[in-house]
Structure formats: C-alpha cells, structure tokens
C-alpha cells in the first residue's frame, strides 16, 4: 500500500463532502491535494470551511485540477451529471476514482468500465459506502435463494435526486442473480392510483420514500407461506458512510480494474 495517498475531493461543500474532509483530516496517510467545486475557484478549502485544518486549492475546472495536481485518487461526491464527467476525466489522467455519486445510467457505467480497462486504472463505484448497508445487500442475496417473493422499500432525504436509490437498484440486481424469476402478486392486480405498487424489476417491486428527517434507510422484505423475513439497514448520520470510503481509498491504490459495489471487495 502507498504510504501517503494524495486525494482530490469533488463536492467538498456537500453533506457527504464535509464528512469526507473530516475523514481525510483524521487519517494519517491521506493527503488532500485539491478540491473540485462549482464555486470558489482559486480559494483554499480553509477559506470556505473554517473548521478544517486542511490546506488545498479549489478548482472549478476539473480538467485543470487533474492536470496540475499530483493525485492518486479522486473521491467523487457530487451529482450524476458532473460526477460522470469528473470520473471520466480522472480515468483519462490515470487518477483512480472512488465514486459515491449514484444515478449513473447502464450506458454510463459501461463506458466507465471500458475506459477503466483501456487505461488500466482502477475505479470503485459504490451505491452505498456504509458497511452495514453492504452487508444488508449481501444477506438479501443469500435469502433470495430461498425466498422468491420479495419487495424493497428504500427511504431517503427529500433532496435526493434519483429514485430508486443506487442501493435499491444494486440490491435488486444482486437478488436477480440468484432468484427464480416470477411475477409476484395477483395476475389480475390493478392499480387504482398509478404507481401505487412501486417500480417493477424482474417481477418484484421497489418502493421509494422521500422525506425530510431521513438520511438513508432500506428494508428488503421476503415473504413465504406463514412467514416473512425483513433485512433492514439505517444510516442515521452521514458519518456512517466514511468507513466504506476509507476502505475503498485504501483498496483502490493497488487496483487496475473496474469494481461496482463494495461487496466485491469484502470477503
């Protein structure tokens, strides 16, 4: 493992970004070399975050940041539109992205995988960085071998842009890998209000809730004759995601391939 890991952080003013700043500051071998932000070009991160002791310039032009800074890793915590461009640019500059931005399309994920392979530069895209959430997904996949009937209920804060969440989509994909495909519910089922049954995925349903006061929560509910099984995870604070970010940054230094989901790095 590299002794000091030089990091560019995209999205330092966001709620996840502010937690990432704290993570970098308290981690001995993490070094912040720059930030990408849509404001405050030319300022120092200390100019906009009085609580931080970190000393790093802010760039509004991400290409300029990648070309000028000696960075090993990009931590990308913005939004799907600019996050995709940041991630591509990082790969083209042989900087390894750790991406917590959700909402990328299948075509975008495929493009990033192809670019990672071409550049031989590692990338980790994690729909959820909370270790407990990753375990929830793994446990749900285990259960789906024995319970065909399942629904996913995900709950997030009302500022979240994408629905379903990346975590819910990833969970559904993992379940699909092992579940016998069936169309659940009554064959003559009818929604009297459109959307009442949620989004359909491989014959089962995903429900998205958006409310102030929530952070990130998911239940995977399995049903079988005479019994139900619920696997649930709650993040009450965004600090819960930082253990996974830390893990991903340390793992990616020795990687040259594309990885989608932290579960692929956990034994």
TrEMBL record:
Gene3D superfamilies: Dihydrodipicolinate Reductase, domain 2 (3.30.360.10), NAD(P)-binding Rossmann-like Domain (3.40.50.720). It comes from the Bacteria. The active site is at residues 156, 160. Residues 5-129 form the Dihydrodipicolinate reductase N-terminal domain. Keywords: Amino-acid biosynthesis, Cytoplasm, Diaminopimelate biosynthesis, Lysine biosynthesis, NAD, NADP, Oxidoreductase. One of its GO terms (cellular component) is cytosol. NAD(+) binds at residues 11-16, 100-102, 126-129. The keyword NAD applies. Homotetramer. This is 4-hydroxy-tetrahydrodipicolinate reductase. The lineage of its organism: Bacteria, Bacillati, Bacillota, Bacilli, Bacillales.
């Amino acid at each position: 493992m590299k002794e000091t890991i030089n990091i560019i952080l995209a999205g330092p003013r966001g709620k996840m970004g502010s937690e990432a700043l704290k993570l970098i500051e308290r981690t001995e071998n993490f070094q912040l070399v720059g930030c990408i932000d849509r404001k405050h070009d030319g300022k120092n991160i200390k100019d906009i975050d009085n609580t931080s002791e970190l000393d790093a310039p802010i760039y509004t032009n991400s290409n300029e940041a990648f070309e000028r800074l000696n960075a090993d890793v990009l931590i990308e915590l913005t939004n799907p539109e600019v996050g995709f461009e940041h991630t591509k640019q990082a790969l083209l500059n042989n900087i390894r992205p750790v991406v917590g931005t959700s909402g990328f399309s299948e075509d975008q994920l495929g493009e990033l995988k192809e670019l990672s392979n071409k550049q031989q530069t590692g990338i980790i895209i994690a729909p959820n960085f909370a270790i407990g959430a990753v375990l929830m997904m793994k446990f749900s996949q285990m259960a789906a071998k024995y319970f065909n009937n399942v629904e996913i209920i995900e709950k997030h804060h009302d500022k979240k842009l994408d629905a379903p969440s990346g975590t819910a989509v990833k969970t559904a994909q993992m379940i699909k890998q092992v579940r016998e495909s069936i169309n659940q519910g009554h064959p003559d089922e009818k929604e009297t209000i459109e959307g009442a049954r949620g989004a359909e995925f491989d014959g089962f349903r995903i429900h998205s809730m958006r409310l102030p006061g929530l952070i990130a929560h998911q239940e995977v509910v399995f049903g079988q004759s005479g019994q139900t099984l619920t696997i649930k995870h709650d993040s009450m604070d965004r600090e819960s995601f930082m253990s996974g970010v830390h893990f991903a940054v340390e793992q990616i230094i020795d990687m040259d391939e594309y990885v989608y989901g932290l579960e692929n790095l956990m034994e």
